[in-house]
Amino acid sequence: MPLIETTALGMRYDDKVTALADLTLDIEAGVVGLVGVNGAGKTTLIKLALGLLTPTSGRIRVLGLDPIADGEQVRAKLGYMPEHDCLPPDMVAAEFVTHMARVSGLPAAAARERASETLRHVGLYEERYRRIGGYSTGMKQRVKLAQALVHDPELLLLDEPTNGLDPAGRRAMLDLVHRIGTEFGISVVVCSHLLGEIERICTSLVAIDAGTLLRSATLSSMTEHNDLLVVEVDEGAERLATALATGGVDVRRDNRVLTVRLGEDDGAVYDLIRDAVADLDLSLHRLERQRHQVADLFRDRPAEEVSHV
Fold this sequence. Notes:
This protein has about 300 residues and is α/β, with parallel strands linked by helices.
């Protein structure tokens, strides 16, 4: 059963702004990246999954349930970490996370125990009795993650979890999210516009743009090798490009880096490069097969005439 399943899902605000348009996808278990530029519709999809919005058209199912008709059941199985700072500054972190556990249905004693345990997992155990208003941005992000995790959900929805963090803080948060998905056995959907971060921790990706699906696949298939070779020499790149073109291969030069297209006989192309480098007495710095990148999905996208959020 997919974690999230949508069929021709559409969402418009005030009949003017299109957030999602005819979106059909299945999000399977694992650590899944929901990627797209700011305004692509990622947060709208999360709010629909939580039952906070009613779709304009189509349908959405979360863990097999309708978020509108079965909202209480859905939210009991989900943990949600919002993007923006929405924590009560005057509350102690341990009290807040305990309260969120109680809201999720845990008895008082179990809620306190789970709160302490969860704050330990996110690295705030020693600071758990401090007021949230005195926390750094990174610590506040960890509190938001703790409250999403405290009731042991089946699925975590994390909206821009590294928002506002410095590079060290981002790495620590990503490591924590990856550990939750791999060691705790909880499926995670990570919503982000930072593609490099998503590629680091996710097993599969869902890419959307302007409310429409670009691609949904495993990370390995999205970043598989293409039919291009990258050749870099210390000097003599122009002479090498001429020699390869004379040999009948498609070659492009950018300073000292050549991009060579492989043909039906890959071995012949490799042999031609080897012989040309040797004949010209060049120093070969790099020879590697180029990989697709997730960012390639968003390049050269035509501008949409309709407004999106």
